[in-house]
């Protein structure tokens, strides 16, 4: 987190102010990774008629650890989880292209009856 609210602000629990802090952080940082899970009405992951369940994880190329702002603790966590920032720069997905495809396929604005995205 780049912008952190004071303990008093956190205690007050003002959702508008909390949103502003979150949005400020999102706006200042480059996306590194996005994970998606799609569930049915009963909370089941798709299995595509196989013995496995599926979730999707996308690594993006936009973030440059030598140029962009970041929270050190978040970067250390991602490294421990196996994120290779140099490999992402070389082989990761361009976020603008991904966003366009995400939009073009109707995955935004509840076109396919999506209930929530977090």
Order of helices and strands: HHEEHHH
Distance linking N and C termini = 18 Å
Helix content: 25-40%
Strand arrangement, largest sheet? 1-2
Structural class label: mainly alpha
Low-confidence stretches: none
Shape: globular
**Whole-number average pLDDT?**
86
Can you tell me the number of structural domains? 2
Radius of gyration: 17 Å
* Largest sheet entry: 2 strands, antiparallel
The total count of helices amounts to: 5
Let me know the number of strands: 2
Beta fraction: 5-15%
InterPro entries: CNOT7/CNOT8/Pop2, RNaseH-like_sf, RNaseH_sf
GO cellular component, one term: CCR4-NOT complex
GO molecular function: nucleic acid binding; poly(A)-specific ribonuclease activity
